[in-house]
Give the backbone structure.
Amino acid sequence: MRTLLIITLLLLTTTSHALERDYQTKWCNANQGQPHRLPNGTQVDCLTATHAVEVEYASKFYEGIGQSLYYAMHTGKRAGILLIVNLPKDQRYLNRLNETIKHHGLPIDVFIINKEQK
Protein backbone atom coordinates (compact mmCIF):
# COMPACT_ATOMS: atom_id res chain seq x y z
CA MET A 1 0.00 0.00 0.00
CA ARG A 2 2.78 2.43 0.92
CA THR A 3 4.60 1.64 -2.33
CA LEU A 4 1.44 2.38 -4.31
CA LEU A 5 1.08 5.73 -2.56
CA ILE A 6 4.69 6.67 -3.32
CA ILE A 7 4.32 5.69 -6.98
CA THR A 8 1.09 7.68 -7.26
CA LEU A 9 2.72 10.76 -5.75
CA LEU A 10 5.69 10.44 -8.10
CA LEU A 11 3.39 10.16 -11.11
CA LEU A 12 1.39 13.20 -10.04
CA THR A 13 4.56 15.21 -9.52
CA THR A 14 5.97 14.16 -12.88
CA THR A 15 2.68 14.92 -14.63
CA SER A 16 2.41 18.37 -13.10
CA HIS A 17 5.97 19.23 -14.12
CA ALA A 18 5.32 18.01 -17.65
CA LEU A 19 2.24 20.21 -17.87
CA GLU A 20 4.13 23.25 -16.58
CA ARG A 21 6.78 22.57 -19.21
CA ASP A 22 4.05 22.44 -21.88
CA TYR A 23 2.85 25.91 -20.90
CA GLN A 24 6.43 27.13 -20.80
CA THR A 25 7.23 25.79 -24.27
CA LYS A 26 4.05 27.15 -25.85
CA TRP A 27 4.39 30.64 -24.38
CA CYS A 28 8.14 30.86 -24.84
CA ASN A 29 7.94 29.87 -28.51
CA ALA A 30 5.13 32.36 -29.13
CA ASN A 31 7.24 35.13 -27.55
CA GLN A 32 10.49 34.25 -29.33
CA GLY A 33 12.19 33.16 -26.14
CA GLN A 34 14.00 30.11 -24.91
CA PRO A 35 15.03 28.49 -21.64
CA HIS A 36 18.37 29.80 -20.42
CA ARG A 37 20.82 28.34 -17.94
CA LEU A 38 22.72 30.84 -15.80
CA PRO A 39 26.42 30.28 -15.00
CA ASN A 40 25.47 29.16 -11.47
CA GLY A 41 23.33 26.34 -12.92
CA THR A 42 19.89 27.83 -12.27
CA GLN A 43 17.42 27.83 -15.14
CA VAL A 44 15.39 30.77 -16.41
CA ASP A 45 12.17 29.22 -17.74
CA CYS A 46 12.00 31.65 -20.65
CA LEU A 47 14.42 34.37 -21.64
CA THR A 48 13.02 36.76 -24.24
CA ALA A 49 14.52 39.91 -25.72
CA THR A 50 13.03 41.91 -22.84
CA HIS A 51 12.13 39.55 -19.96
CA ALA A 52 13.44 36.80 -17.72
CA VAL A 53 10.25 34.82 -17.10
CA GLU A 54 9.44 32.29 -14.40
CA VAL A 55 6.53 29.95 -15.17
CA GLU A 56 4.42 29.00 -12.14
CA TYR A 57 1.05 27.56 -11.28
CA ALA A 58 -1.13 30.22 -9.66
CA SER A 59 -0.93 28.69 -6.17
CA LYS A 60 2.89 29.01 -6.28
CA PHE A 61 2.95 32.69 -7.24
CA TYR A 62 5.09 33.57 -4.24
CA GLU A 63 7.92 31.41 -5.57
CA GLY A 64 7.64 33.15 -8.92
CA ILE A 65 8.27 36.54 -7.32
CA GLY A 66 11.66 35.62 -5.93
CA GLN A 67 12.77 33.56 -8.90
CA SER A 68 11.80 36.15 -11.50
CA LEU A 69 13.60 38.93 -9.62
CA TYR A 70 16.69 36.76 -9.24
CA TYR A 71 16.74 35.87 -12.93
CA ALA A 72 16.21 39.50 -13.93
CA MET A 73 19.15 40.56 -11.76
CA HIS A 74 21.45 38.05 -13.47
CA THR A 75 20.29 38.64 -17.04
CA GLY A 76 19.71 42.39 -17.10
CA LYS A 77 16.17 41.75 -18.35
CA ARG A 78 12.88 42.77 -16.76
CA ALA A 79 11.35 40.22 -14.38
CA GLY A 80 8.28 38.38 -15.59
CA ILE A 81 5.96 35.72 -14.22
CA LEU A 82 3.87 33.54 -16.51
CA LEU A 83 1.06 32.51 -14.19
CA ILE A 84 -0.88 29.36 -15.05
CA VAL A 85 -4.51 30.14 -14.21
CA ASN A 86 -6.75 27.12 -14.85
CA LEU A 87 -9.29 27.06 -12.04
CA PRO A 88 -11.78 29.67 -10.83
CA LYS A 89 -10.03 29.73 -7.44
CA ASP A 90 -6.76 30.66 -9.17
CA GLN A 91 -8.05 34.21 -9.55
CA ARG A 92 -7.38 34.81 -5.86
CA TYR A 93 -3.71 33.95 -6.38
CA LEU A 94 -3.50 36.32 -9.33
CA ASN A 95 -5.05 39.03 -7.15
CA ARG A 96 -2.54 38.34 -4.36
CA LEU A 97 0.35 38.46 -6.81
CA ASN A 98 -0.79 41.78 -8.28
CA GLU A 99 -1.38 43.24 -4.78
CA THR A 100 2.13 42.24 -3.69
CA ILE A 101 3.73 43.70 -6.81
CA LYS A 102 1.80 46.95 -6.42
CA HIS A 103 2.36 47.29 -2.67
CA HIS A 104 6.12 46.84 -2.93
CA GLY A 105 6.54 48.55 -6.29
CA LEU A 106 8.20 45.44 -7.72
CA PRO A 107 9.48 45.61 -11.30
CA ILE A 108 7.64 42.45 -12.39
CA ASP A 109 5.34 42.01 -15.37
CA VAL A 110 2.65 39.33 -15.09
CA PHE A 111 1.55 37.22 -18.03
CA ILE A 112 -1.33 34.77 -17.81
CA ILE A 113 -1.88 31.47 -19.58
CA ASN A 114 -4.59 28.84 -19.15
CA LYS A 115 -5.37 25.38 -20.45
CA GLU A 116 -7.25 26.74 -23.45
CA GLN A 117 -4.09 28.57 -24.53
CA LYS A 118 -1.80 25.60 -23.95
